[in-house]
Specification:
The chain is α/β, with parallel strands linked by helices. Helix content is about 40%, strand content about 15%. α7 (about 165-175) links the parallel β5 and β6. The structure holds pyridoxal-5'-phosphate.
Length: about 400
């Protein structure tokens, strides 16, 4: 078994290593202040727990330029998106919802479930770089449309949508707008004072925070039907004992992110894309060159299977993935690559490299070198041959 120091982990959009400073911040809330926040009326430890939760909420809300009352904690991005979509539709008079075709599963499956229950869903197409067409979006909104859900950035190909324009269209049309910001929160600016976004899904474990905690930003006045019944926690929108160590860790993770780090991720991303595309023939960059998240590179290697590449790279101590975390176990072709017009071969030969705080340039150079060797070997034995370009 290799120690983690020897491994190169480039799957930071699936999840990240928790920063030690985050672990330190969380510890007191597991070992000393372990009361629940709703015990604040009964004893001091409850008051302290409530105070910690309040502070964590304030720190995270501040990053969005939101009021802390507009943020509720959940168990993660999956739950946040489920609550946003189902919660809005169950409360609203409208019965039509609009999403993009390349949303990750929490949004996609929530919309499909709503569809089964009789709601109407419009699935917006995307262009070859993954961008939603604004005209199609405008045309899709009808009198009974209650919600539009288009992600901030894509989980696989990193495309950053024009949420400025999307949110303004929704505002003009008088429909609510939800965005899944799992891969952008902390990495790209997001300001609810500047943009009329009504609901935002936030994750912690993609920015070196703990798993099992996430949040949903809910603009003041937006009505939601509670999905998790029980107690009155989280503004009576999400029952269950609050995950205080998680919330504290999430807030610490947010505090630790800075512009310099994001710039460093971008440089590693560009260096990897440049290195791989110049050294390895028959490669295609998936997603745009410019408007992509700082941490994401997604490349198709023609004539080879993505699964074979990941297995060979893993034997060399390099962890990368073929799709999003939610997707990687499925052998079905990625709906994202198919959505941007790729065929099954392109979808199966694509690899996602995603960067985080603990990567460095030396690792990038090594990954380029090892990937070149692996691709060369696999192509020699590939049954796909060098036929049609994919
Ligand atoms: C865009 C996006 N949203 C939501 C999720 C689910 O996140 P979580 O596991 O935190 O619930 C993922 C997981 O990879 C994702 O990529």
């Amino acid at each position: 078994m290799q120690m983690h120091e020897e491994r190169i982990y480039l799957d930071n959009s699936a999840s990240t290593r928790v920063d030690e400073r985050v672990v330190e911040a969380m510890k007191p809330y597991m070992l000393d202040t372990y009361a629940v926040a709703t015990s604040d009326f009964a004893y001091t430890m409850g008051i302290e727990a409530k105070e910690a939760l309040k502070e964590a909420r304030e720190k995270i809300a501040e990053k969005l330029n939101a009021d802390s009352e507009e943020l509720i904690f959940t168990s993660g991005a999956t739950e946040s998106s489920n609550l946003a979509l189902k919660g809005v539709m169950e409360k609203s008079n409208g019965d039509h919802i609009v999403i993009s075709k390349i949303e990750d599963f929490p949004v996609l499956k929530s919309a499909q479930k709503l569809e089964k229950k009789g709601y109407e869903v419009t699935y917006l197409d995307v262009d070859e770089e993954g961008f939603v067409d604004m005209e199609q979006l405008k045309d899709s909104i009808k009198e009974d449309t209650a919600l539009v859900s288009v992600q901030h950035a894509n989980q696989e190909i990193g495309t950053v949508q024009n949420i400025e324009e999307i949110s303004k269209i929704c505002e003009e049309e008088g429909v609510l707008y939800h965005t899944d910001a799992t891969h952008t929160f902390g990495r790209l600016p997001l300001d609810v004072e500047k943009l009329p976004i009504d609901l935002i899904t936030l994750a912690s474990h993609t920015i070196h925070g703990p798993k099992g905690i996430g949040a949903l930003y809910i603009r003041d006045g937006t009505e939601l039907q509670k999905q998790m019944d029980g107690g009155f926690q989280e503004n009576n929108l999400r029952a269950g004992v609050e995950n205080i160590p998680g919330a504290v860790g999430f807030a610490k993770a947010v505090e630790l992110i800075d512009e310099e780090e994001n710039e460093r991720l971008k440089q590693m991303r560009d260096s990897l894309i440049e290195g791989i595309m110049s050294e390895i023939p028959h490669t295609v960059l998936n997603g745009p060159e410019e408007k992509r998240t700082p941490q994401n590179a997604n490349i198709t290697f023609q004539y080879v299977e993505g699964e074979s590449i990941t297995l060979h790279l893993d034997m060399r101590g390099i962890a990368v993935s073929t799709g999003s975390a939610c997707f990687s176990k499925s052998l079905e072709a990625s709906h994202v690559i198919l959505g941007i017009g790729g065929d099954h071969e392109r979808a199966h030969g694509s690899l996602r490299f995603t960067f985080g705080r603990f990567n460095d340039q030396e690792e990038v150079d090594k990954v380029i070198e090892e990937t070149s060797e692996v691709i060369e070997k696999l192509r020699e034995i590939s049954p796909l041959g060098e036929g049609e370009e994919v």
